[in-house]
Amino acid sequence: MLRGELFCYKDPELEAGKHRGSRLLERLNSTGRDEAEARRAILEELLGHIGADVVIVSPFYCEYGSQITIEDGVFINLNAMLIDVGRIVVRQGAMLGPAVQLLTATHPLDPEGRVHQALELGKPITIGEEAWLGGGTIVLPGVTIGDRTTVGAGSVVTRDLPPDVIAVGNPARVIRKRRD
Predict the structure, then answer these.
(1) CA–CA dist 18, 22 (Å, integer)
(2) How many domains does the chain contain in total?
(3) Does residue 90 contact residue 110 with C-beta atoms inside 8 Å?
(4) Does residue 2 sit within a domain?
(5) Does some domain include residue 1?
(6) CATH code at 117?
(7) Catalytic one of 19, 49, 107, 116
(8) Cys staple from 31: which of 11, 35, 119, 131, with CB 3.0 to 4.6 Å?
(9) Annotation marks residue 107 as catalytic
C-alpha cells in the first residue's frame, strides 16, 4: 500500500489500522471545539504529522490517519473526508472548505480484481502552500494542487493544477492566473 502498489484491502493488518483510525475519530468527533488540548492530543495520535496552529473542525473523517501530513497553519472545515490509502500532504497555510474530499483510493476497473480479489491502490495527493479548496471540492487520486491555487466550490479535480491559478468545474479547469 505504502509503495503505491495493488494490495488486498481485507488484509488483517490494514483492517487493524482502519479500526484504530475509527476509534480515534470517534473520540475526536465527540470533543467540543472548546476542548483544544484534548483535540490536539487525539490528532497527534491519529495523524502521521500535524503542525502548529492547525484547525480541524469536526466532524472530520479519514481512513487510517497515519498517512496524512498536515503542516503549520492549515484550516480544515467541517465534514472533510481524507481517504488516506495513499499519502496525503496538506502544506502550510492551506484551507479546505466544508465537505472537501481528498480521495487517494482507486480500484482495478476489472471486477475480478476489484470485487473478487478485493484489490485497491493508493495514489498520493498534495495540496500546495496557501492553496484554498472551496466547499465540496473533490480531489481524485494522484493529484497535486500547486501553491496559492484556488479551486472553486464543487469542483472535481482530476489532474494536477499549477501554482497561482484559479480553477473551477467538473472536471476542474484553470480559468485564469491568480491576481493579487
Answers:
(1) 6
(2) 1
(3) no
(4) no
(5) no
(6) 2.160.10.10
(7) 107
(8) 35
(9) yes
